[in-house]
Write a structure and sequence with these properties.
single chain, 485 residues, Endonuclease, Chain A, 16-stranded mixed sheet, two-stranded antiparallel sheet, 20% strand, lipid metabolism, CLS_N
């Protein structure tokens, strides 16, 4: 009998492999068609699966299924977030005195999109690059008495990273509760990873989306791009800046890469704490007690502005930033300024930006002249003609690479934080942004963007068309893969 079975398998194993491949491909293709809400994503995945049934189905299993949005941990995260957000009881009724009448409808949109209320009493200080940001962070860490929470995408093991490790170690020795959360992918940007140094110094550190045996394969394409520092629940830092020496002026005084970060005080710090606590609990299963990690009263300096956090990610908040930007571009009446290192908006956002320009709104888009990601730069270039031909002005900034993510509307509303205008930030990354209703803050950000424009080169349709065909073809091919760059 055994010999007969062996002979049977030897003769018919190709048929079994074929049937298994067919079943796997059919199952994956049906799942993609039934669960993808974007028709382009559904077509793309079904095409990959059909062209390479076995590999395509396996690749879809790893990178195509959004488990975070539906699992029980996602529900626990939402429950934890609601606990913190209900403690914030100072919502703004009308944003018109702080910004402009057209933003009343945007506030209504934000109330439905964000888990947090729009609160007054926040002081927000703009910090330019690492020369201002890292010393301010270290000063706050050295003044901590109860708790420090730090979350970042990249935490390099370099001179600036080690300065912050030293400050955290000093806090641990003083008896301060310290938690550090680093993205598993971002932790590998420097060798050796700084996580080993943090742990040797007694700093409790965890990696987001990993486990002791290595990467969680079902979540391998998902990353936490959030940047948060909270000290004693009263002082917060957030924005787009990772922890890297490249954003500071070095011993040789060469121009450093640019970025923008924000120091915040007021009720919005509680919202930052809520986001960090749910990410920490999601990663470690440790709940952070309110009495140590949160502050009950704030006395921020003047001026004070309405603001709120908007979290987004491949969970229940997957389209939060997408919805906010669509709404913001729709209410614009005079100007839209966008600065982004990676400008790859999807069709819906492109339509909103182009529609604004065709309505007569002045739309300025500033991107780096020299990008740190070559493939992203190729993909961006392939798409620029779509906004320029509709009346938008695109500028390639000269000078050092600028990593800032800044948007202002009509000189009265601002959207800042960790999100890039690309598919990864809008759909795959866990991001954190702040919407700010303040003419003064919008004016400061506009001045920064306008300074970039003054030292920038305008991108024209003629210049794009004059590129060699081989380069234009290369750019278009790379652009096809833009959702996963």
């Amino acid at each position: 009998m055994l010999l007969y079975l062996q002979a049977f398998l030897q003769e018919y194993w190709p048929h079994f492999v074929f049937l298994f491949t067919l079943a796997a491909a059919a199952t994956a293709a049906v799942h993609a068609a039934m669960n993808k809400t974007d028709v382009r994503a559904a077509i793309g995945w079904v095409g990959i699966i059909l062209l390479s049934p076995l590999f395509g189905a396996f690749f879809y299993l790893i990178a195509g299924i959004n488990r975070v949005r539906h699992d029980q941990i996602s529900q626990q995260r939402d429950k934890s977030l609601r606990h913190y957000s209900t403690l914030d009881d100072t919502p703004i009724a009308d944003v018109t005195p702080y910004s402009a009448p057209q933003f009343a409808s945007l506030q209504t949109l934000g109330d439905g999109v964000s888990s947090f209320p729009l609160c007054d009493g926040n002081h927000i200080q703009l910090l330019c690059s690492g020369d201002e940001t890292y010393p301010a962070m270290i000063q706050a860490i050295d003044g901590a008495k109860l708790s420090i929470a730090l979350q970042t995408y990249i935490f390099d093991n370099d001179r600036e990273g080690r300065k912050i490790v030293d400050a955290l170690a000093r806090a641990v020795k003083r008896g301060v509760e310290v938690r550090v959360l680093i993205d598993a992918i971002g932790s590998k940007y420097s060798r050796p990873p700084i996580v080993h140094l943090l742990r040797r110094q007694g700093v409790r550190t965890a990696l987001f989306m990993t486990n002791p045996l290595g990467m969680r394969m079902p979540y391998a394409n998902l990353r936490s791009h959030r940047k948060i520092l909270i000290v004693d629940g009263c002082i917060g830092f957030t924005g787009g800046m990772n922890i890297r020496a490249g954003f500071t002026t070095g011993p040789s005084h060469e121009p450093a890469a640019c970025d923008t970060h924000f120091r915040v005080e007021g009720p919005i710090v509680l919202q930052l704490t809520a986001v960090f606590s749910q990410d920490w609990e999601f990663t470690t299963r440790e709940a952070l007690p309110y009495d140590i990690w949160c502050c009950e009263s704030w006395s921020p300096p003047m001026p004070r502005v309405p603001a709120r956090c908007v979290r987004s990610g491949p969970d229940r908040t997957i389209l939060s930033t997408h919805h906010m930007l669509l709404g913001a571009f729709a209410v614009a009446q005079h100007s839209i300024r966008i600065q982004s290192p990676y400008f790859l908006p999807d069709v819906a956002l492109l339509g909103a930006i182009n529609t604004a320009a065709r309505r007569g709104i002045r739309v300025d888009i500033v991107i780096p002249g020299r990008n740190n990601l070559r493939l992203v730069n190729y993909a961006m270039t392939a798409q620029l003609d779509q906004v320029i031909r509709n009346g938008c002005r695109v500028w390639r900034a000269r000078g050092p690479f600028n990593h800032s993510k800044l948007i202002t509307i009509d000189g009265a509303w601002s959207y800042v934080g960790s999100s890039n205008l690309d598919p990864r930030s809008l759909r795959l990354n866990f991001e954190l942004d702040i919407e700010i209703y303040s003419r003064a803050m919008a004016r400061d950000l506009e001045q920064r963007i306008d300074a970039e424009i003054e030292n920038a080169e305008a991108v024209t349709l003629e210049a794009l068309a004059a590129m060699p065909f081989v380069k234009r073809l290369r750019n278009k091919i790379i652009w096809l893969a833009s959702p996963y760059l």
